[in-house]
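Page 42, continued from yesterday. The earlier attempt failed because a stray header line got pasted into the input along with the sequence. Redoing it now with the clean sequence only.
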Amino acid sequence: MRLDHKIIYDTIAPGAKVLDLGCGDGELLDILVKGKQAKATGIEVDDQAVYKCVEKGLTVFHSDLDSGLTGYPDKTFDYVILNQTMQELKRVDFVLQEALRVGKKVIVGFSNFAYIRARLRMFVKGKVPITKSLPYQWYNTPNLHFLSIRDFWDYCNKNEITVVDAKYYHRTRFVPIFPNLIALNAVFLIEKA
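This time it went through. Structure tokens are written below.
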């Protein structure tokens, strides 16, 4: 199991109601349904990914997250997941606020664009960073927003969002110190203050 999926899996309570925003091919949803007996639903914009979810027997809706979650009442879900999705959204703030509205807790996972090797590539080569977590050229990246761990902490503080927990990691190991510099990825558990 990927480390980000394990972190999320360990966070989710058995039998929880879960909404996975940008669920992709449903790999994480499938793990949560089978292992945690989660009542899980996904939302995905990519047609082929939706088909793969349906083939796995998962409940998924084809929708663009940037249009919001208007069909869901407040606090419908125990957890809303935005894992490796946020940086690809056009309206990040809006989608995060919607996730916090419909979910009691929100799990946010993202690649840290302030990772040391990314910084060094910019400094030494003067080129857009490419890492294992960010394997794209500037012209074919799906990422619209480039954020760091520190950026996300600042966003939460500014918007009165409580960080319940944060895990930082590099490939297969956790990063206990200097996460904004050393961690390749982060997973936050947040809620509205």
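Notes: Residues 47 and 84 are 18 Å apart (CA to CA).
Reminder to self: strip header lines before submitting.
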